[in-house]
Structures are given as C-alpha cells and as structure tokens.
Specification:
Layout: H1 7-47, E1 50-51, E2 58-59, H2 61-83, H3 93-102, E3 105-114, H4 119-129, E4 137-143, H5 153-170, E5 171-173, E6 180-182, H6 186-190, H7 193-206, H8 217-225, H9 241-253
Parallel strand pairs: 3-4
Antiparallel strand pairs: 1-2, 5-6
Helix pairs in contact: 5-7
InterPro entries: HECT_dom, Hect_E3_ubiquitin_ligase
Keywords: Transferase, Ubl conjugation pathway
GO molecular function: ubiquitin-protein transferase activity
Length: about 250
C-alpha cells in the first residue's frame, strides 16, 4: 500500500518506469528481428553463390558464367605467355647456340695474350688470373709478335686449340669408344683446371668456337643438370680397367 500523500508522485514514477520498460522491450524485439533478418539474408546470399571451377572463388550465379569465361581466358593467356619463353621454343641445336650467343655482353670484354708455342699453359694461367673471365663477357685474343686485331677469327682459333689440349690432358676415352671421362688427377683438381676447362667450353659454345663433342653421356648430363643423384653410370662408363672388372664381378655375384 502507498500512502495517500505520496500517491501522485508514485504514479508519475511508475509511469516513467513503465515507459522505459516498454522502450527496452521494443528495442530488444527490434534487435532480435534485425538479427533474424541478417541471418536470413546471409543464408540467402550463401544459397545464391556458386564456386568458380577455374579459380575456386565464390560468385553470384548471375555472373559466375561471365567470370569463369574471363578467368579461363586469363589462364590460357598466362599459359601462352609461358610458352613464349625462348628456352621452350628451341627446335634444333642451332637455335640453342644462337640463344647462348645472344647472352654474351658485348660491352664487357677480357683480353688474353698468348704464344703459339705455349698456347695452352699460358692460356690457362691468364684465364685464371683475369678478373672478368666469364663466358658472358666477350673474349679478345692477341698472339705474341703479331699485329692482328681480333674480330672473331683469333678467338675462334684460340678456343679451338684450347679445346684440343683440354681433351688430350684432362679426359680419357673408354674401351667402347663412346666418349671420354675426366681423368683422375688431384693436381688438376687442386689447380682448378677442371673449372677453367668448363669455362673455356662454355665460352667456346657462346662465342663461335667448336663444341666439346668428346664427352660421355653421363658427363654431359652432369654438366647440364649438376645433379649427380639422377645420373646413371654403368660399368662401361668406368675407364679404369681393374675397377671396371671389379664392378662386373660384383654385379655377377649379386
């Protein structure tokens, strides 16, 4: 019971509380309705999306066909761009040599002066001493007591003689006459002669010299890939007679 003296004030306060309760109830109901509408809209949107078969992204069904068409065109364009790489369009050995020659930087040169009587030894020494020695740099060769200017002929002559000596000194042929293996020589390895020989071979290929066509297949594959694990070497590839016989015996025993 409320006393009569304070009843008017109580009525006013009660009305205010009632109004506040009504407002809060309406707000909560509105929020619940909004949440229901949002969840329904999300469900509707999810039901109205489709996945692109090319890129896997979700799109509205009305535009998925147009997107998939353009997405497929972009993929085919990218594939065409990759196939335009010159390395993937080689048709012959001549194409490969032309591409290798195009990688030579004509603005950077390194010069070598050698004697015809001791061309190999002096050529190897100067090649190792030069700071700019690289198959990518243009090689310029001069011979002692000769006034000729190298326009390409002297370089070709030098590279030809160097490859002949490299084949004689650092490679040995097997009994089957199917190419040559590097010789087992720790001195040549310590002096980096094999590395220098490889650089001379690369320069010869890039700058108009002869091709090193005396290598065995496994040796050529290793120089191209650098992966020794994927290369298969048979007993016929071993040039040492005693070692090759031992390999054959062990194979028969297995």
């Amino acid at each position: 019971m409320v006393p009569l003296q304070i009843l008017p004030g109580h009525i006013k306060e009660c009305k205010k509380q009632l109004v506040d309760l009504c407002d809060s109830a309406e707000e909560e109901s509105c929020k619940e309705e909004d949440e229901d509408e949002c969840s329904a809209a999300l469900c509707y949107e999810k039901s109205k999306t489709a996945e692109c078969p090319v890129c896997g992204n979700a799109f509205h069904p009305e535009i998925i066909e147009f997107h998939a068409a353009s997405c497929g065109l972009r993929t085919s364009d990218d594939d065409g761009h990759e196939s335009s790489d010159p390395i993937s369009t080689f048709q012959s050995s001549e194409d490969i040599l032309n591409w290798i020659g195009s990688q030579v930087d004509e603005t950077n040169t390194f010069s070598i002066c050698v004697s015809r009587t001791d061309l190999y030894n002096r050529g190897m020494q100067q090649w190792q001493r030069q700071k700019k020695t690289s198959p990518k740099c243009r090689l310029k060769v001069t011979f002692f007591a000769e006034a000729g200017i190298d326009t390409g002929a002297l370089t070709k002559e030098f590279l030809t003689e160097m490859l002949v000596e490299i084949e004689k000194r650092h490679f040995v042929e097997g009994p089957d006459k199917k190419g040559k293996n590097p010789v087992y020589c720790l001195n040549s390895l310590d002096c980096n002669y094999f590395r220098t020989a490889g650089e001379v071979m690369a320069a010869s290929l890039a700058q108009g010299g002869p091709c090193p066509n005396f290598l065995r297949e496994w040796c050529f594959s290793y120089l191209c890939s650098g992966d020794s694990d994927s290369i298969q070497v048979s007993a016929s590839d071993v040039t040492d007679l005693e070692l090759s016989q031992l390999i054959v015996k062990s194979t028969i025993m297995q």
